[in-house]
Design a protein that fits this description.
Elements (H helix, E strand, L loop, with lengths): L8 E2 L5 E2 L3 E3 L15 H11 L5 E4 L4 E4 L2 E4 L6 E2 L19 H14 L6 E6 L19 E2 L11 H10 L4 E2 L2 H21 L3 E6 L4 H6 L14 H4 L1 H11 L7 E7 L9 H12 L5 E5 L7 H4 L18 H10 L5 E4 L5 H10 L4 E4 L1 H5 L3 H6 L20 H5 L3 H20 L12
Parallel strand pairs: 3-4, 3-15, 4-8, 7-8, 8-11, 9-10, 11-12, 12-13, 13-14, 14-15
Antiparallel strand pairs: 1-2, 5-6
Helix pairs in contact: 1-2, 1-15, 2-4, 4-7
Length: about 425
């Protein structure tokens, strides 16, 4: 029997998602001066939790001001586990010893997110080499950290080269002690989420952040127990899962977000699937498949051969092909695919194919916070009308033709971040206009 979008799903930890539609992590960046959840988060998540979603995953973007311009990565947001290495100075972070005031803000945030019995998960991340210069409690000249001293390369032009050097420079390789400290930072953040009342956490091991950097042979050239083989490169991820499981109850939901394999590039399908197998063996609740890094902007364009080509229903999602590979090797893992879904028919086709169990929606949820309840799960709305089409915001002529590629991709993210900010202020939202 076909699994329907409105069908509930029970995770291995016992958490029940009332339907298959998940509000994926999206750009927010609304922390207060103490890097705690501001009152705007209450308004924002009160809105999303009433939208009929099967679950909501929190997120904060990664924005970096440069003079009068804004450079930003076109990827999802997260809660920073480190106060020293951050993606943006206004992101929420996890302090070593949260004060009662901080805990109170977190509890209010969790209460708003979990209204209407909506499962709410916090996405956890360490940016690694994607921490811009001076971002976090470190000096402007202090290097970011990474598995290996591999610099971020934003593009091939001279402007891209200069921005790469100015914003990120070359990170320094982490010591084994620092790796263990990073594991404990993820653990402390997950513990705070549990104690605040959240349903679970999602470990961010995609989009070029620290855990992704360890998984990839491009950014991990270590020769110790954290590098050299696919299993060694996955070691830190396994340790993070182990450590979190040790401090939260078995009913606490733990998901993970991974990039699809870069076939023909630096990550082979076989090595990627080997790492997935090691992670699945740890008993995670679900695996979300996404893609892209600062250097390879697939999160905006997807894995389709041509962004301009017409997509069939079965190609609507960006990363379904990789999901099918994961499914064929690990049939029992719960899979969530995020990226490119825009119609009820496309989402239902993805479920029918068996490639995924959950559908993640990012940008559409920033425009239509009650999309699940009012459109996709609304039985009174015909299939042909149950859509959430959105234009890619390309910016002006300069951005499209002369600006660095990261700026061009950032224009699109900036638009949706602006809509989220409006939502957090109790204002209405709107899709990009024609010609944006």
């Amino acid at each position: 029997m076909s699994v329907q979008l409105h069908s509930p799903l029970k995770t291995p930890s016992g958490v029940v998602f009332p339907n298959r539609l998940v509000k994926a992590a999206m750009a927010e960046s609304l922390a207060d001066k103490d890097n705690d959840p501001s009152d705007k988060y209450i308004t924002l998540y009160d809105t999303w939790s009433s939208g009929g979603w099967g679950a909501v995953i929190t997120g904060i973007p990664f924005l970096f001001p440069l003079s009068r311009y804004i450079i930003l990565t076109p990827f999802t947001g997260e809660m920073e586990v480190s106060t020293i290495y951050m993606g943006h100075p206004n992101n929420i972070n996890c302090k070593p010893a949260p004060s009662p005031a901080t805990r109170d803000k977190w509890e209010r945030w969790a209460l708003a997110a979990r209204q209407n019995d909506t499962p709410a998960l916090v996405q956890l991340v360490h940016p690694g080499r994607q921490s811009p210069a001076g971002c976090g409690n470190r000096s402007f000249f202090a290097k970011a950290v990474a598995p290996s001293a591999v610099p971020v390369i934003l593009g091939n032009s001279m402007t891209d080269y200069v921005l790469s050097k100015l914003l990120f420079g070359t990170p320094r390789a982490m010591t084994v002690k620092e790796i263990h400290e990073a594991v404990q930072q993820f653990t402390a953040a997950a513990k705070l989420c549990h104690e605040s009342g959240f349903t679970g956490v999602q470990i961010h091991a995609a989009h070029g952040f620290l855990l992704t950097q360890f998984l990839s042979p491009k950014t991990n050239t270590r020769t110790d127990s954290y590098g050299g083989t696919p299993s060694n490169r996955a070691r830190i991820v396994i340790e993070v899962i182990h450590a979190i499981r040790a401090v939260v109850p078995p009913t606490f939901c733990i998901g993970i977000k991974l990039n699809s394999a870069d076939i023909g590039g630096h990550e082979s399908l076989d090595e990627s699937l080997e790492q997935v197998g090691l992670i699945v063996a740890e008993g995670i609740d679900f695996l979300e498949i996404s893609g892209g890094t600062i250097e390879n902007l697939r999160m905006s364009a997807g894995d389709a051969p041509s962004v301009k080509s017409a997509r069939t229903i079965h190609r609507e999602a960006f990363f379904l092909d990789y999901a099918r590979s994961v499914r064929s090797h690990y049939p029992n893992v719960l899979l969530m695919v995020t990226g490119g879904f825009r119609s009820r028919k496309g989402m239902q086709a993805a479920l029918d194919s068996g490639a995924c169990d959950l559908v993640g929606l990012g940008r559409p949820s920033a425009i239509w916070p009650r999309l699940a309840k009012e459109v996709l799960l609304n039985e009174d709305m015909k299939d042909e009308d149950a859509r959430c089409d959105l234009r890619f915001v390309r910016g002006n002529w300069f951005v499209r033709n002369l600006g660095p590629k990261i700026v061009g991709a950032g224009v699109d993210v900036l638009y949706y971040a602006g809509q989220i900010a409006r939502m957090a202020e109790g204002k209405g939202t709107s899709p990009p206009p024609v010609g944006a």
